[in-house]
Design brief:
The protein is an all-beta fold. The protein has a domain at about 5-60. β54 and β55 form a beta hairpin.
């Protein structure tokens, strides 16, 4: 489905501090918001969601009036006053009228049911509550309008299922908190949720699940948090250990629902399946995320779903477009760290990624507008049908290609990497890699940059250290490769090196050495002025360098480790240009003569095998003044 990309102004009001105040009654105590302590956060964030009404005033409101609320002591349910919308039967406390209810105490084998047939709103205050059920959801919202669950100041509350989940007529209850209505959680306390029942979920809503404040510790065999329509989080502190997805939203009945929207908060997620999965879309504006999915990148065993299929074990995933506007992300995933079947827009943020597959993967376009991205372990670093780098600092270590443009869906998945060479030399005009800015460093055991279509570089600084083994090059494109601006410094093996093509408007030199080198590469002009200098991170015998200072007619002295070569430009491209699928030359000059000290023989010594170790630390990323200002 084609959807319009829109930029909306998000106005979210959230609490900076929550504290106790007094209402008009001298004998009552209530928590209430202090208007002087409310900060209005206005920020423009990219996304396809209308975020103007994501959170209502009541969603944010943690106040309640003790003088008018009905108090229920679960430790002594026999003393609970029957009537006024409350009934008790066989350990089940049922609320059937709207209003505010303050719960305290423990219920070792029981349940709180909300069944308000006229669908009035209800607020449930948890004041050090502990409810355990061995047969159902400790908190079951059967019918109501909007439900608000508020944790009282400094309270610790626990809801647990220790046995099974029995159905309630047509309702297949499968969560510790199970709601058929919109449910909002807030407050200044802690909510612990536990279930070890096979495939039992933590929090489930058949509508929306909303969080605006509070601390949540969730242990579940199924999903940690699941909202059919959506999961919306303004703020909260979350620790989630789940057998399936950490946070999940999916609605097969309405294609515009099933999304995850996060404004801020802290998230520590250890999930058997995906860390965060919004089937429609995922939009994250900020927050701090520590995600381990599918056992992490070191896991060697494939995870299977209940149906026997290979389970999805990605860090953050959506079926349609994904928007990450800011935040801090530490992701260790078995499958892709960040994945979308649609487009991915990364506008800012700090990313530390280790993955058994792709660092960032989109079936359509990946666009990076800013941020600091460190992919220290991956099969491929960034992959999409089209990859656009507008800005940002990017460091990639990959077992295969650093940046890859390939048509179709994810063909590099853990369980299906066969057939990747099919049509590998065919040009796909829908595949493009566009580098317009930013600072990029790639340390790849495959190609540094590999486009099944075209490669266009118009700006930025790109440093590539391609494989020491044969069969790969620093640049590999099947269509057109042009450079019109920016800096490219690349090293690799001569047999597969490609230079830029004749449509380039900036000078570029491809040069090869007689032997494997490990030293600094430096280029100076005829007056001895430094044009560029860089230290490859692995052995090489061929380089590609392009800067605005390399011009037609210029003479340049090039040091490659222990070898020195003088090159005079006759045109803008020195060395082989557009080669099919990476079958490049050995750095021949435009007149077909091999440059001095290049005899075309096999380099001395054997290329060093990749040992799988990561560098002690990546090279220092350069500051980019515009990285924080770019918006999609």
């Amino acid at each position: 489905m084609k959807r319009k990309l829109l930029t909306s102004v998000m106005i979210i009001t959230f609490l900076i501090s929550l504290f106790t105040g007094c209402n008009g009654n001298t004998n009552s105590n209530s928590e209430q918001n202090n208007s002087n302590q409310v900060e209005t956060l206005e920020s423009e964030n990219a996304g396809i969601l209308d975020t103007s009404n994501m959170f209502t005033d009541e969603d944010m409101n943690i106040s309640y009036d003790e003088s008018t609320a009905l108090k229920i002591n679960l430790s002594d349910i026999n003393s609970i006053e029957i009537g006024n919308g409350v009934s008790v039967e066989n350990g089940v406390v049922t609320i059937s009228s709207g209003g505010t209810y303050i719960l305290s105490g423990s219920l070792s084998e029981g349940q709180l049911v909300v069944d308000i047939t006229n669908k009035d709103d209800v607020k449930i205050v948890l004041d050090n509550v502990d409810i355990t059920s061995s047969s159902s959801a400790p908190l079951y919202i059967k019918e109501a309008g909007n439900v608000y669950v508020t944790m009282s100041e400094n309270s610790v509350n626990t809801l647990s299922n220790t046995g099974e989940f029995l159905s309630d007529g047509e309702n297949n209850i499968d969560g510790v908190v199970f709601s058929k209505s919109d449910i909002t959680f807030n407050g200044n306390g802690i909510l612990n949720i536990n279930t070890n029942t096979e495939y039992g979920h933590g929090i489930v809503s058949k509508d929306s699940v909303i969080f605006t404040s509070g601390t949540y510790n969730i242990n579940s065999s199924g999903h940690g948090i699941s909202g059919k329509d959506d999961v919306r989080i303004a703020y909260g502190d979350f620790v989630i250990n789940s057998g399936k997805d950490g946070i999940h939203s999916e609605n097969s009945d309405d294609a515009s629902k099933g999304y995850v929207y996060i404004v801020d908060g802290t998230y520590n997620i250890n999930s058997g399946y995906d860390g965060i999965d919004g089937v429609y879309t995922v939009q994250i504006n900020s927050g701090e995320f520590n995600i381990v999915s599918g056992g992490g990148s070191e896991n060697t065993e494939i995870t299977y779903s209940e149906s026997g299929d290979t389970a999805s074990t990605k860090g953050i995933k959506s079926d349609e477009d994904m928007f990450i506007n800011n935040g801090k992300y530490n992701i260790n995933s078995y499958d892709d760290a960040i994945h979308s079947n649609g487009n991915i827009f990364i506008n800012n943020g700090t990313f530390s990624i280790m993955t058994g597959d792709d660092g960032i993967h989109s079936d359509l376009e990946v666009t990076v507008n800013g941020g600091d991205i460190n992919i220290s372990k991956s099969y491929e670093g960034i992959e999409g049908q089209t990859v656009n780098i507008e800005n940002g600092n990017i460091y990639i270590m990959s077992d295969d290609d650093g940046i890859n443009s390939a048509g179709g869906n994810d063909s590099s998945g853990i369980a299906d990497r066969q057939g990747r060479m099919k049509d590998s030399f065919a040009v796909n005009e829908n595949c493009n890699i566009n580098i317009k800015g930013g600072n990029i460093t790639i340390n790849a055991e495959g190609d540094g940059i590999d486009s099944n279509g075209n490669l266009y570089i118009t700006g930025g600084e790109t440093y590539i250290y391609a494989s020491e083994r044969g069969g790969n090059g620093a640049l590999d494109y099947n269509g057109e490769g042009t450079i019109t601006g920016g800096i490219v410094a690349a090293s690799g093996i001569s047999g597969m090196m490609q230079n830029f093509g004749e449509n380039s408007t900036q000078g570029s030199i491809l040069l090869s050495s007689q032997s494997m080198q490990s030293g600094v590469v430096s280029v100076t002009d005829s007056n001895g002025n430094s044009i560029i200098e860089f230290q490859p991170e692995k052995q090489y015998n061929s380089i590609v360098v392009s800067t605005p200072d390399i011009i037609d007619g210029g003479t340049y002295n090039i040091n490659m480790g222990t070898e020195n070569t003088s090159v005079t430009m006759s045109g803008l491209i020195y060395g082989s240009g557009e080669n099919m699928g990476g079958h490049g030359g050995r750095g021949m000059s435009p007149n077909g003569q091999i440059p001095e000290k290049t005899n075309g023989e096999r380099p001395e010594g054997e290329p060093k095998e990749f040992n799988g170790e990561e560098p002690k630390e990546p090279p220092q990323m350069r500051d980019n003044a515009n990285a924080n200002d770019t918006q999609q």
